[in-house]
Amino acid sequence: DHLTEVASSSTNSEREMKFRKILLDIAKKMGEDDLTSLKEQCWVQDFISKQDLEKKKTAFQVFQALCEQTIISVDNTETLEELLNDIKRKDLVKFVLPFSSKKC
Predict the structure, then answer these.
(1) What is the value of pTM for the model shown?
(2) pLDDT at residue number 6
(3) What does the angle CA 15 – CA 59 – CA 27 come to, to the nearest 5 degrees?
(4) Is the pLDDT of residue 75 over 80?
(5) Are 39 and 56 in contact (CB under 8 A)?
(6) 104 lies in a domain?
(7) Would you say residue 18 lies in a domain?
(8) Average pLDDT, the chain
(9) Residue 36: pLDDT over 70
(10) How many domains would you assign to the chain?
(11) Which of 44, 41, 11, 23 is closest to 92 using CA atoms?
C-alpha cells in the first residue's frame, strides 16, 4: 500500500544519505597519492574518461561520478571495495562494509 511505499522510500533515502556521508568520510581520509591512484584505476578500468577525471579535484568528486554512472551505489559497493583495495587502502574498506553488496 501507499504507506508502505512511503516508509520504504524514506528508508532508502536515509541509506543513500548515509552512503554519501561514508563516501565523503572516505574521501577526506585519502591523500593526493590516493586520489591519483583512484583516478588511474577508474581510467584503466574504463569507468570514467581521462578528460572527465582531469576535472575531478577530490576523491569525493570521483565517487560522485561513479555514482552518476551507477558503477557504485548504496546497493552496489563491490566496485568501490575493489577500487579501495586496488589503491592499497584496504583500511578504508571497513567504512563501506555496512553497505556491502558481498553479503556472506
Answers:
(1) 0.84
(2) 47
(3) 55
(4) yes
(5) yes
(6) no
(7) yes
(8) 88
(9) yes
(10) 1
(11) 23
